[in-house]
Amino acid sequence: MLLKGIDIMAEAIVSILSQEKEGCAESLPEPFSLIILGASGDLTKRKLIPALFRLWKGGLFPDRWYLVGLSRSPMDDEGFRKEVRESMGSLPAPDQEGFLKRFYYLAGDSQDLRYYLKLKKRLLELDKEHGTQGNRLFYLATPPDLYRGIIRHLGAAGLSRTGDGPGWTRIIIEKPFGRDLASAQVLNREITEVFAEEQIFRIDHYLGKETIQNILFFRFANAIFEPIWNRRYIDHVQITVAESIGIGRRAGYYEQAGALRDMFQNHLLQLLCLVAMEPPATFEADAVRDEKLKVMKAVRPVQMEEIGQCAIRGQYGPGVVDGQEVAGYRGESGVMPDSKTETFAAMKLYIDNWRWQGVPFYLRSGKRMAKRSAEIAIEFKQIPHLLFKPLMSEAIAPNTLAFRIQPQEGISLTFQAKNPGPKLCMDSVTMDFNYRDNFKGVSPEAYERLLLDCLTGDQMLFARKDWVELSWSLITPILEFWQNMPDLDCPGYPAGDPGPKEAGELIERDGRCWRTF
Ligand code: BG6
After folding, report:
1. How many other β-carbons are positioned within 10 Å of the β-carbon of residue 58?
2. What is the pLDDT of residues 463-485, one digit of tens each?
3. Catalytic: 267?
4. Which residues line the pocket of ligand 1, CB cutoff 6 A?
5. pLDDT in tens, 189-226
6. Whose CA is nearest to atom 4 of ligand 1?
7. Which atom belonging to ligand 1 lies closest to the Cα atom of 245?
8. pLDDT tens across 57-77, in order?
9. What is the DSSP string of 27-39?
10. Which CATH code, of 3.20.20.450, 3.40.50.1370, 3.40.50.720, 1.10.10.10, is assigned to 31-174?
């Protein structure tokens, strides 16, 4: 069941979020309405409803709020509540009812202005009934080809601007934000004609993960790491997001996307920015986002004449994952038998600034890999002089600091220690911090953090217009190169492998190797 055990989790989250320790305060939102476009879709059921429930159950919602679901499916309020209830599994009935009684529904065509005029009327009635003071958050959870029409109609119906009525208005827009630089620019232009940038929340769920938020705390709340966080001490950085799942029922989307659009333009480049950025002057949304933007500006564009040396792609074939035989990508339902869509990509990037000159950042992500594992590893330089050399045959492994994003979230530092016994004998050992053991509780899900931030108007964890365009400008030439060379090989890798051999070569050419996961 989707939300099985959610009540237990909610208790744990209350305890995490309501800690009274200094510095652990959570700001609570003002009264609000949440209008979800695409309310009968998968994202709403799988991610949004569970996150909203946990926030509500955790006491993080104000007394006055309501939700309106919008989609084409003909239903009334009761029908919608029933559908949501069914997806909520085994929650205690009294909890469900207290939550669900705030749900309303309006069916219609999201590309028809009359639907929005009807919606406006309904919202005015509900605002009054619930005392939400006109504060409205629109959530675009529809397929991306509907975004532009929805945005235009929200504007035309007078539902977009803060100041057009009482209260604030905000909009959350899901990825993919465009499919290349040109389409992202068009979408940015059209959305900013209707909404001000302060109202727009471009979601990247990776930024809502606790372990990813922790990167900035680790770097800037400790004095000992920052002095060595640069080219003098760091040899290279590896960012890996490996998934064991395939594409499931998402062939329609994935065939048009591929790994570079799906994972790199957003999640992996955001991780790179968090690792590489300078300390912001304040912990405020634009101060942080300005620093991330500077990193993107300093990333050296990939040169097409050497693309094979710094960007490679791959596609999984049949293989074995978790002991189960699985189909290859071309055998997945909805995928073209001769598809060249990449399900794996690896890149080497350089950041041309004082801190990072000459330090390669190796990025890789793929589907149907041996297991699910996401981590950022900072590999430090070799020691300058090997004191123990005459008696030791092997080189000493360099220190590595690894942020484990998922699963088993934590941070580990690997270093050398003397092995007890013989006089000259040592081994790599690891100092390990584990979230679960240390903080004793369940971390909130990414969508909880992100929804709460939208409701309180904090844009720190959301992609800004300029960042999105810069990230596309880095990725688009590679996509075009791959697309314009139909005969270019898309190397295969058996499902369950760590990627094609070309990915290994990309890093081995530099005398380094990928970490195992
Ligand atoms: C999404 C991608 O953004 O992130 C998916 O569209 C991918 O293809 C998912 O599976 C991975 O997210 P997580 O949180 O499971 O690592």
Report:
1. 22
2. 999 999 999 999 999 999 999 88
3. yes
4. 243, 262
5. 999 999 999 999 999 999 999 999 999 999 999 999 99
6. 263
7. 10
8. 999 999 999 999 999 999 999
9. PPPPSEEEEEETT
10. 3.40.50.720
